[in-house]
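Convert to structure. Protein one:
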Amino acid sequence: MPFVTYGTSNVDDQGGREISLSLANNGLGPAILGPLEIRYEGKIIDSPADLLEQCCGLKPNSGLAFMTSPASNVAVRPGESVQFFRLKRTAQSSSTWDKLNEERWKLRVRACYCSIYNDCWIIEGAQTIPTPAAQCPSTWRAFSDGASR
């Protein structure tokens, strides 16, 4: 049985200043990640660029570098995590990083995932118990890693 949790951090594995948003499989079986939906102040966030624009006032096409990874339609083995958004603190990103460091706690993240046997669950935020679901919702506006743009 997979057991997926959402988490956020402001340090990387080496102790550097990096904000990350992630989904981790803390269960015993693989998790097939379904749609991921993120809201900020009630508004659905479509992409990492949209997140930084809505929460932190970053202008489109600012050239600020951030890292993304797909968090939907991927399999995650037990003990693995997917960091679907990362922003390192640099001279160029410092004001955006500082703002996101405060605002990341206001994100409402929900995700759906299934086992290899098509048993599905939904998580919202950092709750500890996932809610069983017959299947992953097709009506969510899924967060995109922005790679297709």
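Protein two, convert as well:
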Amino acid sequence: MIIYIGADHRGFALKEVLKGHLIDAGQEVVDMGNDILEEGDDYPVFATAVADAVSDNPFEDRGILICGSGVGVDIVANKFIDLRCALTASVEQIKAARTDDDVNVLALAADFIEEETAKNIATAFIETPYDGAENHQRRIDMITELEIGSVGEEAPEEETEPVTEEDEKVG
């Protein structure tokens, strides 16, 4: 498993902490940027880089994204097929997201989370397996169908009444 990590300026410091934490734990980590603290950089750039990398192997690799609120990077990652990103604030929440929803990208809010909590969440994200229960997989499959646009039946054709001579005169 490769863990791709990325953050904008608001998440940069936490990214550096988490990267060191994960490397110290023996994980293979690829930093997708930003490489320097650059005020005003744009989170979609780094979120896209991580999401694109994870989408190459979404069933094995994982991603961690960090911005100030966590929301922006979460939105970006969830635009990619086969990526399920979860913005989480607790170990319990990420364990449930991994077990039930097989999330493969973690979003963190640098402005609202303590470093130790973020480390514990990242560790749980890496170590918690997906349980593969039928009901969980069925729901994930439904999400995949939404992503590729094949959910539901085609809309029925609108029934129209034949136009009469009288209708033509009125219209």
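Residues 85 and 105 are 4 Å apart (CA to CA). The longest strand covers residues 2-7.
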